[in-house]
Design goal:
Protein name: Mediator of RNA polymerase II transcription subunit 33A
Radius of gyration: 38 Å
Mean pLDDT: 75
Oligomer: single chain
Structural class: mainly alpha
Largest sheet: 2 strands, antiparallel
Shape: elongated
InterPro entries: MED33A/B (IPR039638)
Number of helices: 45
Distance between the termini: 60 Å
Number of domains: 6
Strand order of the largest sheet: 1-2
Strand content: under 5%
Length: about 950
């Protein structure tokens, strides 16, 4: 039998009444009654818990059968989940509260049920008919009308229901003590007014009975006041009431007036042994922190379960909630930052710092709230990228950069701003103050609290598979530190756990379960946001090592050997490429360890890249672009600056010649360009705000090597030979990835179409670059930043540069804009460009031409093709890259036109495009990344070409 059938089948409910009357008359066991009732309803196909049964039982009790055994039956029905508790409590409130004077026992029993079942929302929402139950409550209490909220979702109704329940108890208590007349309204908006009924007949005039009722009445008032306090103490209901405060401010103001009146005048409140007037005011105060750090994940899960899917935006108002819409702008910004097709002229650190300050001010939260909101948003970002194989462009390293490099720098900016202001107020020099009496502001303490609170979000702290070894090493470092072992590296890369004697080898290390919080703490220690006292936090270290050597070197042999002066052998280079340089060392002093900033390792590599032999320079460049860039999170900002600086090496003192000195560094530059060309690397530079600086370094490289003859070549130590076209292609491809060259410039977007063009034009990037260098270290914020950076990372004094400094690049860019707007100029017959176009077409379609007729010639006539012509074309195409680039748009236009007019089949066009892309100059490889990459789809037995 379906639910719809039972609703309209009175025999089912007649049977329930008969069963209940029989059990009542016999004084039967409530448990037996509940079991029989549940079995009967299940047989009839009634969905449990049943809203119809709840209405039936409450109506049956109030008031013809208001006897103790019936209340016991009702309690068993609630315990066995035959009826929904919240609905039963709502139904009772409309009948019992108005009759509390004449029915004090019923009022007492109602409050007992309230204490047992009003705080268990997390379990009740699992009921299949939970939504129907909440709508029934709305119909009974008229919540939507009273609070004027035109939202009928269960989560909203939960907030209204809890708020109304507390308010009813409050007004009932005020009326019982004669205080309701003192309110501005002089009455309650709830049906709390007493409705005395002559249910007791003439016995009501019995003096002893009246005395008993009066005593119970006073006790009930005290109990009601204490239950109000419980609603504000409970972890779940207190957050629900917090939502009412934030989203129903006008109603909350009236409610608080009633609370203050009760606190000031209530004798019941003064007589309570469980709550005082001051305690009630503190619980209901707007300044009260609704959640403390002790609120663990279980209670937060309960709260989210209650509000899930319906009050997400309001739930965000609650402190510490991981899915808070209060901090939704963090999530939106982080997702935009991960978009590999977008780069920005301003770094994520600066943008995120401003966003965090704005949200903290607008939302009027503490910095602890803001920090925990930021951490959780970034952790969720990492969790969404746990499996990089699902995305054709992996973003895990970029996400980890945001979590472990960018976010600590954001918080460092915020903390330094406060502490610098404190120092300035005291009129003490920053340097001496920090050395002698370090100023620690409130924000630093809030950071500590937020990191400790992260332990409540265990699921978000699970490290992605590639990061598990590093997270375990971070946890092991803390464990060894507390065990008294001197560790010399941030990541313990050289420590062999299996070789450790005692109980610190297999047994202890296997117990290590490092997570992302361990890495976050290490990143904060590296930037002097925390000290090693963080290792003492409860639960941070799960186990200890005993009976182990007192001094284990944590440096990887490669890095320690490097600092001792060992040469860069191939074995050492491979080790340094695969392992990040450490970001700090632990220095033993008496009985304590202190983190000491140390960039010696990465700076040593930079010195080799600048002053070493030719082979050493190439090795150093390879090392810089390895693990120290990708996953050296604690030194990532330094590595990015150093690599950018190396792309514009100074002119040697003994250099002479008309050609650019950059040609002498061709191999070195190519190693750097290849090393930072991956999508993750580009985004890492982007997140650190280095796009304008990087563009300014790439443009001279493109200009120089794009103007070189392809005959110019250099040989790598491996024996591989690279030409000027290779260096140009790598630099130019990287430059194109810094701005969306495949989108029309904004000035060419007309009409009603929304602007989709990119503002990151080469001119704009250069203007930002010039502005950054001109204002470098002039503001207090920049001065603090410059002090944090490596001594080699600060930019050298540089003159502003403009597009006019790169005539070849500027000419190509102007032609590109014309192509984007479909205004490709006519090709002048007989010009040098025309000859290059013909040569490229002959090379692309040489198989077709062997048939005797060139189908794609740009001339009006026809010419025969021969082996000598192909050789001439090959010699003709040994040209500088910029000359070939200028001809490419005309080549593509001619090929597409020939295909459109039937002179070239789609298959032949695809073959010609392939020949062009495989042309030995390699300068055309950037086309595979953007607009003219051919996609071949098989369908209907033939290949079709789509652009």
């Amino acid at each position: 039998m379906t639910m719809a059938m039972t609703v309209h089948n009175p025999s089912v409910w007649d049977g329930v009444v008969e069963l209940t009357k029989l059990a009542q008359d016999r004084g039967g066991d409530p448990m037996v009654w509940a079991i029989h009732l549940s079995s009967s309803l299940n047989s009839a196909g009634v969905q449990l818990p049943s809203t119809e049964l709840a209405e039936l039982l409450v109506s049956y009790i109030c008031w013809e059968n208001n006897v103790p055994i019936m209340w016991k039956f009702l309690e068993k029905a609630l315990v066995m989940k035959i009826v929904p508790p919240v609905l039963v409590l709502a139904l009772l409130s409309t009948r019992v509260i108005p009759s509390r004077r004449s029915q004090p026992a019923a009022y007492r029993l109602y409050m007992e049920l309230l204490k047992r079942h009003a705080f268990s929302f997390a379990s009740q929402i699992k009921y299949s008919n939970y939504e129907k139950t909440m709508h029934s409550i709305d119909d009974i209490l008229h919540l939507s009308q009273i609070f004027s909220l035109q939202v009928y979702e269960p989560g909203v109704l939960v907030v209204e229901y809890v708020f109304s329940t507390v308010w009813q108890l409050l007004d009932a208590s005020l009326e019982d003590e004669g205080l309701l007349e003192l309110t501005p309204e002089k009455k309650s908006r709830w049906p709390t007014g007493t409705q005395d009924m002559e249910v007791d007949g003439h016995d009501i005039f019995d003096d002893k009975r009246m005395e008993h009722h009066e005593g119970m009445h006073k006790t009930n008032t005290v109990m009601a006041v204490e239950i109000i306090g419980e609603f504000f103490r409970d972890k779940v209901t207190s957050r629900i009431l917090y939502l009412a405060r934030r989203n129903m401010s006008s109603h909350w103001g009236c409610f608080i007036q009633h609370v203050q009146l009760l606190a000031a005048n209530s004798s019941a409140l003064r007589n309570s042994k469980h709550i005082s007037p001051d305690a009630l005011l503190q619980l209901t105060s707007d300044k009260r922190r609704v959640l403390s750090r002790e609120c663990k994940t279980s209670s937060q899960k309960q709260f989210h379960a209650v509000i899930a899917g319906s009050l997400l935006s309001s739930a965000g108002q609650c402190h510490g909630t991981s899915q808070s819409a209060l901090w939704l702008p963090f999530d939106l910004f982080l997702e935009d930052s991960m978009d590999g097709s977008q780069v920005t002229a301003t770094g994520a650190v600066e943008i995120l710092t401003g966003l965090a300050k704005a949200l903290q001010a607008v939302n009027q939260t503490s910095w602890q709230d803001a920090f925990i909101g930021l951490w959780i948003s970034v952790l969720r970002l990492v969790q969404r990228e746990r499996d990089p194989s699902e995305d054709p462009v992996p973003r895990l390293d970029t996400c980890l950069c945001m979590l472990l490099s960018v976010t600590p720098l954001v918080i460092l900016n915020i903390i330094e701003e406060e502490e610098t202001a404190l120092i300035n107020e005291a009129e003490v020099r920053v340097t001496s103050q920090r050395k002698e009496n370090h100023v620690s502001g409130r924000r630093r303490r809030d950071l500590v609290s937020s990191l400790q609170q992260l332990d409540d979000y265990e699921s978000l702290l699970t490290p992605p598979l590639p990061v598990i070894p590093v997270a375990n090493q971070a946890a092991a470092k803390a464990m060894m530190f507390l065990s008294g072992i001197a560790v010399g590296s941030g990541y313990l890369d050289g420590a062999s756990f299996n070789d450790m004697p005692g109980n610190c080898s297999e047994y202890s290390i296997k117990k290590i379960a490092g997570n992302l919080r361990h890495l976050i703490v290490e990143a904060c220690i590296a930037r002097d946001l925390l000290d090693t006292s963080a290792y003492l936090w409860p639960g941070y270290v799960k186990s200890r090592c005993n009976q182990v050597p007192r001094n284990i070197s944590g440096h990887m042999p490669g890095w320690s050997s490097l600092l001792k002066g060992s040469p860069l052998t191939p074995v050492m280079v491979n080790a340094l490429v695969s392992t990040p340089a450490s970001s700090y060392s632990l220095v033993f002093s008496k009985t304590l360890f202190f983190p000491e900033a140390s960039l010696a390792e990465i700076e040593k590599i930079y010195e080799i890249a600048v002053g070493g032999s030719d082979d050493e320079k190439l090795s150093a460049a390879t090392i810089l672009c390895g693990a120290s860039l990708i996953r050296g999170w604690n030194i990532q900002e330094h590595t990015v600056f150093l690599i950018t600086k190396l792309l514009s090496l100074k002119v040697p003192a003994d250099y002479s010649g008309a050609e650019s000195h950059l040609r002498a560094y061709a191999l070195f530059l190519d190693v750097l360009l290849v090393g930072i060309s991956s999508a993750d690397c580009i985004q890492i530079f982007n997140l650190h705000g280095m796009v304008p600086q990087l563009a300014g370094k790439l443009m001279p490289i493109c200009e120089v090597f794009g103007s070189c003859s392809p005959k110019a070549s250099w040989t790598l130590p491996t024996g591989e030979e690279i030409s000027s076209h290779v260096v140009f292609s790598n630099a130019f491809t990287l430059l194109l990835n810094l701005w969306r060259f495949d989108r029309p410039p904004l000035e060419h977007v007309t009409g009603d179409v929304a602007p989709m063009g990119s503002k990151l034009t080469p001119e704009y990037l250069l203007l930002v670059r010039n502005s950054q260098l001109a204002s470098y270290a002039t503001t207090p914020k920049d001065q603090l930043k410059s002090k944090r950076l490596s001594k080699f990372a600060s930019p050298s004094p540089s003159e502003p540069i403009y597009m006019e400094s790169f005539p070849k690049l500027k000419r190509w860019y102007r032609q590109h804009q014309e192509c984007i707007t479909s205004t490709l100029p006519c090709l002048v017959h007989g010009s040098s460009v025309h000859q290059i176009v013909d040569g490229l077409l002959n090379m692309m379609f040489r198989k077709v031409n062997r048939g005797g007729q060139p189908q794609t010639s740009t001339t009006s006539g026809s010419s025969n093709s021969s082996g000598s012509a192909l050789e001439d074309a090959s010699r003709q195409l040994k040209l500088p890259a910029w000359d070939l680039m200028e001809a490419v748009p005309f080549v593509l236009d001619a090929a597409l036109s020939a295909c459109a007019h039937g002179r070239l089949s789609p298959r032949e066009l695809a073959t010609g495009e392939y020949n062009l892309l495989q042309f030995d100059c390699m300068v055309l490889q950037f086309f595979t990344n953007k607009t003219v990459k051919p996609y071949l789809f098989r369908g209907g037995g033939e290949e079709k070409l789509f652009f």
